[in-house]
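A reminder from the course coordinator: this example appears on the midterm review sheet, so study it carefully.

Given structure:
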């Protein structure tokens, strides 16, 4: 997990937020990571992250079984075309708790999000490649919005 976060931090213009206790973010987000393209280092307004790392179940997202120690999940917005290439047409999977497997995001798959629980030997390099691509896509969206 730390290696993925460090890799994203090294991307030009990346802003990685990792909320901690005592900050401005809700307790539920503590310990998770949120990836943005923000060349000025400021949290973008009206923009969703292009990737996240979550370390626990969220109230509306429990199917990956992230509460046991040592489980975490990378979520990446890859867009609908790449989503279909990576997952087939499937937007839902019966076992979202599989590890080291590219899966449709259990909540946001229909919006072009994939996820990997505990990326390792089979998916580690692909996850980094997909995060770089998502970062490049976010940079392109930023360029289109910025005069």
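Designed residues:
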């Amino acid at each position: 997990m730390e290696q993925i976060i460090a890799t994203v931090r090294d991307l030009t213009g990346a802003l990685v937020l990792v909320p901690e206790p005592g900050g401005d973010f809700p307790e539920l987000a503590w310990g998770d990571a949120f990836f943005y393209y923000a060349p000025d280092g400021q949290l973008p307004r009206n923009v969703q992250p292009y990737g996240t790392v979550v370390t626990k179940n969220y109230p509306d997202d429990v199917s990956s079984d992230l509460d046991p120690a040592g489980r975490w999940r990378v979520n990446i917005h890859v867009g609908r075309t790449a989503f279909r290439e990576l997952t087939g047409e499937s937007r839902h999977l019966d076992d979202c708790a599989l590890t080291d497997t590219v899966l449709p995001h259990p909540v946001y798959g229909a919006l072009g999000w994939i996820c990997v629980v505990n990326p390792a030997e089979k998916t580690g390099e692909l996850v980094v490649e997909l995060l770089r691509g998502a970062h490049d896509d976010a940079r392109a969206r930023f360029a289109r919005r910025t005069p």
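Helices lie at 2-9, 79-87, 124-145. The radius of gyration is 15 Å.
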